[in-house]
Amino acid sequence: MGGTSSVTRVPLEAFAGQCQRSLQPVIDRVSYYSALPMEPDQVRQYLNEPAAALPKALLDRVTALRVLLVPYLEKGPSGSTDLVCFERPQPQRLLTSSVFDVGEAVFLFVASEQQEVADFHYWFYHGLATLVAERVDPEWLARYQGLVMDELNRMARGEVDERSYELKQKLARRAGKPNVEAKAMRQYVQQSFADTLTLFLHGLCCDIDVEPGPRQLASRYLRRRLELLAEFFPPNPGFELFPSDPEARSGNGT
Predict the structure, then answer these.
(1) Per-residue pLDDT tens for 64-80?
(2) Residue extents of the structural domains in the chain
(3) CA distance 89 to 84
(4) Within 13 Å of residue 48, how many CA atoms lie on the same side as its CB?
(5) Which residue from 38, 35, 31 is spatially nearest to 4, judged by alpha carbons?
(6) What are phi and psi of 40, to 5 degrees?
(7) What angle in degrees, to the nearest 10, is found between the helix axes of 162-172 and 183-205?
(8) Alpha carbon distances (Å) from 77 to 73, 101, 112, 212, 253
(9) Which of 25, 81, 122, 173 has its CA 20 to 30 A from that of 211?
């Protein structure tokens, strides 16, 4: 790849341009490049399996998807893109995934050095879900917000992930009922959508456990969210979130 590895830090856009000709197909409209050597079995576990679980309706929203596996990622200086790193950055600047969108293709960077398969799947799906949450139809987001508002009115505790949990806590500390038009509410709904979509996609690919706890949204609310996402992004044939057919591929056990 033109000796990129001899440089310790490369901007995302430069790295994406340099690896264009080295991309390998995964599935239709999804390709990848790895800066680290990968065995065929690793390609299957890290890329083929999670990509195969992506609903077609979701892929239709991101045009061509280029997944780039790099050693490390570093938060870029203010006003500039993030950086691919070949040496571990300082903890406060370390990233696990980042997205570079060029319109006709989306480059999803995932730091893969010393990443377990399950963790890689999470960050792969989280990066993609964050991108989709920024592009989702306003009508769909409004329907999702309706579920969230009902949860808030019922004083449902917990969330799906830490980011949405923290935003929900900020809303709870405000006096009175949340303003559906307020910036804080919009940020919370979009982050909650992204976090729930991450779980939805991860559950289509793998058997994962959602551990109960004070920070975890109750299963009855979580199921309503997942069912709505399944309406937006119907699972591909052979993939089910709540398996009813013993011959269908197993999904999330929530």
Answers:
(1) 999 999 999 999 887 78
(2) 4-120, 138-232
(3) 10
(4) 10
(5) 35
(6) -55, -40
(7) 150
(8) 13, 18, 22, 38, 41
(9) 173
